[in-house]
Amino acid sequence: MDSRWDLGFLSKAVERLPSSFDRWESIVDDLPILLKDSGKQLRDKVDCLPLITVDESSLPTKQHWQRAYCVITFISQAYKFIEGQGDAALCTSLPRQLAVPLVAISSHLGLSPSPCYAAFVLWNWHLKNPNEPLSKDNFKVALSFTGKEDEDWFYLIHMRIELAAAPGIKAVVDCIEAIKKDDQQEVMRCLKIVTDCISSITDIMKEMYQECNPSVFYNMLRVFFSGSKEGIQYVGTEDPDTLRTYPGASGVQSSIIPLFDIFLGIELEGGTKSFLDGMRIRMPLEHRQFLTDMKNEYKKDEFSHSILRTYVQLHPCNKDAYNSCVTALVAFRQEHIDLVTNYISKPSNDTATEGTGGSALKIFLTKPIEKTEKFKL
Ligand code: HEM
C-alpha cells in the first residue's frame, strides 16, 4: 500500500532549523512584534543579517529544506510589504541576505522563488502533541505574520482541508486498479469516498467564517500572500538587475482540486486552463509529478479519453456515483465563490479585480463551475 499520501499533500517539516540559522528563527519568532511601528524593527534586523549558507550540510534533510523555505518566505514577504499599501510593495529590491538563500532553497525544492501555498499551509504546522499522530485536533500553525487568531484560523482551515483530502487521494489511486480489474463494486466504493471527501472539504471551508474576519483578512493578511506585478530585484543572484514579477500564494496552488478534476475527467478550457496549468510550477515537485502520473493513468484509453468516464459509460450502475462526485465538486466551487465574495469583493467594495494568484476574479472563478456541471453523464 502506498503510504505516501497518509497526510494528504501535507508534509511535516522540522520544527526548528539548526543553530547556524538562529538569526532567521529569532526573526520569525518575533514577526508580530517586529512588524509593529511600520516594521522599522524588522527592517533593521534584516539589514544587518549575514548571508547564511544553505547547502546539504547545513540542511541535511528534506524536512530541513521545507522549514527553511517557510522561514525565508515569511521573512521576505514581511520585508517586502512593510508599510505596503494595498498590494503595493514598498521595496523594489530584496537584499542579498534574503534573495540568495530564497533562490537556492526554492531551486533545491523545485519551487519557483516566490511565495507559494506550501510555505503557508502544506509545511507550516507542528504537532500539538508529538506523541500522537496527526489529526484535525493535533496540529498548530508554526509561523504567523500577525500572531492574530484570524491568521492562524485561515491557515488551519486550509490544513484541515488538506488532511481531509487524504482518503480521497488514496481512492483516486485505488480506482485505477479497480478499473483495470473491472471491479465495479470497488469503482463505486472509490467514487463514494471521493464524493464524501469533497463534501467534507466544502463543510470545513464553511467554517472559515467562524474565526477569520473578512475585514482582517482583506486589510491585514492578504498583502503578505501577494506577489509582485511591478517586479522586484533579487540582489546577489543571477540577473540581479532584472525586475522579477510573480504571482502570490493562493489555494489555486493546492493539488487537491486539480487531482479530482483529473480523476473525473474534467477539462477546463482557454484562459482558465492555462492559468491553472501555470500554477503547477508553484506546487511542490512531487505533487506536480503525481498529478502528471495520474493524468497519464486516467487518460490511458486508446482515444485518450478519461478512462473513468469511459468505464462509467460502459457500466451505467456507476453513473449515479460518478454524478454525485461531479455535483460535490460543483458545490465546492460554488461555496468557494461565496468565500471570495465575502473575503475579497465585499471588503474591497468590489474594487478588487484580481486574486493573489493574479487571476481575473469573477470570470476565472465562474467559468469552472459552469464547465464542471457539464461533465455530468
Ligand atoms: C478566504 C478564503 C479564500 C479566498 C479569499 C480564496 C480566494 C481565491 C481566489 C481569489 C482564487 C483565484 C486565483 C487567484 O488569483 O488567487 C482562488 C482560486 C482557488 N482556490 Fe481559493 N480562496 C480561499 C480559500 C480556499 C480554500 C480553503 C481552498 C481549498 C483548497 C481553495 C482552493 C482554490 C482553488 C482550487 C482555486 C482554483 C479555482 C478552481 O479550481 O475552481 N481556496 N481562491
From TrEMBL:
UniProt cross-references to Gene3D superfamilies, sorted A to Z: 1.20.58.480
MF-aspect GO terms: heme binding; indoleamine 2,3-dioxygenase activity; metal ion binding
Gene label: 105315605
PANTHER family assigned to the protein according to its UniProt record, in alphabetical order: INDOLEAMINE 2,3-DIOXYGENASE
GO cellular component entries: cytoplasm
Protein family: Belongs to the indoleamine 2,3-dioxygenase family.
SUPFAM superfamilies: Indolic compounds 2,3-dioxygenase-like
Keyword match Glycoprotein: no
Domain of life where this protein originates: Eukaryota
GO BP terms, alphabetized: 'de novo' NAD+ biosynthetic process from L-tryptophan; L-tryptophan catabolic process to kynurenine
Organism: Amphimedon queenslandica (Sponge)
Name under which the protein is recorded: Indoleamine 2,3-dioxygenase
InterPro entries linked to this entry: Indolamine_dOase, Trp/Indoleamine_2_3_dOase-like
Keywords, comma-separated and alphabetical: Heme, Iron, Metal-binding
Pfam families: IDO (PF01231)
Binding site for heme b: 336
